[in-house]
Amino acid sequence: MKIRFPFVRYVLPATVILIGLFFCSRNARAQSHADEPWSATQATPPSALASMLAKPSAAKPVILQVGFAVLYHSKHIPGAIYAGPASSPEGLAMLKKAVGKLPKNSEIYIYCGCCPMNKCPNIRPAFQTLRAMGFTHLHVLILDNNFGKDWVAHGYPVTGESASLR
Asked: What confidence score (pLDDT) does residue 90 get?
């Protein structure tokens, strides 16, 4: 069977390029999370947390928004507690106060959503502070782009009402 000229010149190279891009993007994504202070098992995709929250009989974890107040007051995950922007000493003090009475084995999910995850100034200091405080069941909501694109745009539940830790 004779291969036609356009196939060899256009289709085959385009296919090779697309396959290469696919594997490069998978590697880049895996490497981007490999250097983080949390483990792969502590990294939670939005769909997993949304599914957990949708189950009425499931125990609800503590969800902390560790970003900027304007984002929290605009929209946040129902039941999420505003714990302050962890990029500042004042924000870390708010975080410590928010979790001060929680048992160290509490199931805690943190998120920010201000910007792409790899540039977020809040999520890493919050995670490291909570780990240093002795919390053993920490999870990070992986919002690769931002809260709007990775949570809201997917139709996951949101509210604008404030929640507080009692």
From this structure: 97
Give the number of other CB atoms < 10 A from CB of residue 68: 19
CA nearest neighbour of 50 among 80, 84, 73, 70: 80
| Cβ contacts of 68 within 8 Å, gap of 6 or more | 85, 114, 122
Tell me the mean pLDDT in the region 100-109.
Answer: 97
Beta-bridge mates of residue 62 = 108
C-beta of residue 109 within 8 angstroms of C-beta of residue 44: yes
**Structure confidence at residue 63 (pLDDT):** 98
Residue 150's CATH number:
3.40.250.10
Kindly state whether residues 40 and 30 are assigned to the same domain.
no
In a domain, 64, yes or no: yes
Give 157's contacts (C-beta < 8 A, 6+ positions apart). Answer: 50, 53, 54, 77, 78
Structural contact between residues 111 and 123, judged by C-beta atoms closer than 8 angstroms: yes
For residue 120, the SS3 value is coil
Q: What is the pTM of this model?
A: 0.76
Q: Which residues contact 151 (CB under 8 A, 6 or more apart)?
A: 46, 50, 77, 113, 141, 143, 158
